[in-house]
Amino acid sequence: MSKPTLRPGSDEEWEALLQQLRQVPPTQPRPFFYTRVRARLAAQESAARSSWPGRLRRPAYVALLGLLGLAMSGDGVVLPPAAPHPASPANRPLAH
Amino acid sequence: MACSLPLSITSESPAPGATTSVVSADDELLAQLRQGSELAFRTLVTRYQDRIYRTAFSLLRSAEEAEDVAQEVFVEVYQTVGQFRGAAALSTWLYRLATSRALQHLRRRSAKKRFAYFTSLLGFDNRLLHDPPDHAHPHALLESQQGLHLLLAHIGRLPSQQQVAFTLRYEQELSYEEIAAVLDTTTAAVESLLFRARQTLRRHLQSPARHV
Q: Are residues B116 and B155 in the same domain?
């Protein structure tokens, strides 16, 4: 005797299929899930802390960058204004 | 940090009659989390890891990706719990994070699949990367395992909202109200989503010519 066709066209078959779905053995994460979550958090926090390039965290590079910035920041701070040249015609006293 | 509250560690789903006490326990847990309690975070993870993992697994059908999503959810909770206003229940927030993250993974996966299919068409890769059509005889549905396999495959092809609603209802066994809270919609909308999902699935499963 052949089995009745098991198509979920009928309500009974559809319900049976849904019942099967509910009875699928529940899955679980692998053991030590919490440890892995903590490790991921620690890794993210560490990555966030080291988001600046390593060189910028070294004092020598910071000092060098500071000096470079100072040197390029303006001409009036480090060097005195140029003195007028005495030989220049504009600087000669007028003959009366 | 010291934790004064008795934070029971259990990952089992609550009994139906214990909803009020669960909400109250979650409120206490939330308060402790906001204070930065490590014990509260451990309790949260232990209490919800199975449900969050199963939800992700139901949508992704991949243990590796489900683990990834579950980890992302708890990391996000830890980092943003201070911004959580408590407008929804803690469990609702967790389910919402899990489903949205899982859907993100699904979108990424299908984008990768489309790209791989495209490159295989162009001959950059000799492997056959698209799903081969399943020419199973209609009577294969007589095999219950195959029927379930087909059902799962078709659930994965539902529109995302229907997929989430169907999964939360029939695999996680959430109530219509809980699903509505997770999807941030009304109970009537959830009923409609589930009705359409059932119609689509039954139609596809009845159809003799299937391509899974």
A: no
Quick one: B79 and B15 in the same domain?
A: yes
* Inter-chain touch B148–A26, beta carbons under 8 Å: no
Contact between B147 and B179 (Cβ < 8 Å): no
The first and second tokens of residue A12, run together, are 């009974």
Task: Look up the CATH number of the domain holding residue B160.
Answer: 1.10.10.10
Same domain, B69 and B14: yes
Interface mutation target, options A13, A34, A44, chain B, most CBs of B under 10 Å: A34
What residue numbers bound the domain in which B55 lies?
7-127
Among residues B102, B127, B152, which one ends one of the domains? Answer: B127
| Interchain pair B206, A9: CB under 8 A | yes
- For residue B70, report the phi and psi dihedrals to the nearest 5 degrees: -60, -40
In-domain check, residue B2: no
Distance CA B122, CA B128 (A): 12
Interchain contact, A21 vs B70, CB within 8 Å: no
Give the DSSP letter string of B6-53: ------SPPPGGGHHHHHHHHHHHHHHHHTT-HHHHHHHHHHHHHHHH
How do residues B102-154 score in pLDDT, each as one tens digit?
999 999 988 888 877 777 777 765 555 555 444 444 444 445 678 888 999 99
Report pLDDT for B182.
96
**Cβ <8 Å between A40 and B71:** yes
A44 contacts in chain B (CB < 8 Å): 75, 79
* Spatial separation of the C-alpha atoms in residues B119 and B113, rounded to whole Å: 10
A7 lies within 8 A of chain B by CB = yes
pTM summary value: 0.70
Considering CB atoms only, which of A8, A26, A29 is closest to B202? A8
Number of domains in chain B: 2
Is residue B1 assigned to a domain? no
